Amino acid sequence: MDPSIMEKSWDELPNPKKVWIGQPGSHEEGLGRLVLLTPDRVAKAAQTQIVTGRRVNLGWDLNKLEFACFDRQPCEMKMVPLLDGVAFDDIYTLNPQQSSQWDGLRHFSMPVEEGSKERVFYGGTTKGEILDRSNGRIGIHHWAQEGITGRGVLIDYASWAEKKGIEYTTFSQHTIKLSEILEIATKCNITFQRGDILLVRIGVIKEWETKMDIPAKQAYAATKAPKHAGVEGTMDVLKWIWNTGFAAVAGDAISWEVFNPCL
């Protein structure tokens, strides 16, 4: 598709379910919405947002969640001594989905048509292409070439809700409304720009670290019907994300959108 399609409004899209650029297997296709992180936008973000030079790690510890759901294996680290302990190698067994990570375009498929059992990934990529280890189509190596760097905008819902007296557990279907996101943005004098990376803090880390004991964590990991607080999964939110021009969305929630979806 014409690269300019990424700058169109939702209502201008020929088919909102099929929006990608570049040839199948190309770097452009593999970037997805990250194509909005143009050199001009990244340079502007650096020039206007870097003030103190303080660096902040947005990733959680690799061993979190130490009790993971969906039968995901927790991180394991093995130390291997070399030369009788003169040096050491570390060997990690890690499921990236268990801790902080970006969901890649290969992570989840969608039905080809409503009600269809046939499913494809971004760009029409098939399961066969995903399983072909020689096929790098829409892999995260496209993102890793230059990294994901731009202007991050934080919507600190957890702090806002605490001030409002709104009580919830992040391991529930508590839902962040679009209207609440916009209210927080207004209160914090945030004006969204195309290419922004939207960060929503809901408070999972604080609850996991300070409010849940080991039995509670184990019970969460064992449940077959987990619940995760998050942003409402509605068409209004989807259209807003697209029209605002976010290059990516992220947060501290187990799933960015509320899970299971509240219909």
UniProtKB/TrEMBL annotation:
Stored Gene3D superfamilies: Putative cyclase
Endpoints of the signal sequence: none
GO aspect biological process, one term: L-tryptophan catabolic process to kynurenine
An example molecular function term from Gene Ontology annotations: arylformamidase activity
Sequence similarity: Belongs to the Cyclase 1 superfamily.
PANTHER family (UniProt xref): CYCLASE, PTHR34861
Name of this protein: Cyclase
Highest classification ranks of the organism: Eukaryota, Fungi, Dikarya, Ascomycota, Pezizomycotina
